[in-house]
Design goal:
By secondary structure, the protein is an alpha+beta fold. It is built from four helices and seven strands, in the order H-E-E-E-E-E-E-E-H-H-H.
Length: about 150
């Protein structure tokens, strides 16, 4: 019940027009709640160099795609601002391409995963003996109480 209620409230929230501020990753798909009968959406993007790009999207758009480079994004419908967002490249470690090379190292990942997951547990016989001992001792002690 709680999950269904949460999903219902989330649906209502996405349908309602409101202003929000977000941190988006480059190329991220994000929802936008706009009046479908209103003016088209004006998307204003300013990159780190200060260049400004303005595009339009239909008002009935439910999702938009964040730009492919870092900067600042504003989505407006007429005079009403719907979203202000900072767009960033997600992982700074992935952004450093100075030492990037093309190579294949090691075995195929699928083969390595298959080998890792099919290796037998060396303690399996011990666990089986221990479990058998517990079952037999349980049977032994419960059987003796029933007879006396």
């Amino acid at each position: 019940f709680v999950i269904l209620l949460h999903r219902f409230l989330e649906e209502v929230r996405t349908e309602k027009e409101f202003f929000s501020r977000e941190n988006l990753q480059t190329g991220q798909i994000f929802p936008i709640a706009a009046d479908p009968l209103g003016a088209p959406l004006s998307i204003d993007f300013r990159d780190r160099a200060g260049n400004e790009f303005i595009t339009e999207a239909p008002a009935r758009s439910r999702t938009l795609l964040a730009p492919g480079e870092a900067g600042f994004l504003e989505v407006r419908q007429g005079e009403k601002s719907l979203l202000q967002a900072a767009v960033h490249f997600a992982d700074s470690r992935e952004a450093d391409f100075r030492d990037a090379t093309s190579q294949t190292s090691g075995p195929d990942p699928k083969v390595a995963m298959l080998e890792r997951n099919t290796t037998a547990d060396f303690l399996a016989p011990l666990w089986l003996l221990l479990l058998g001992g517990v079952v037999i001792s349980s049977w032994w002690f419960t059987g003796r109480r029933a007879r006396t």
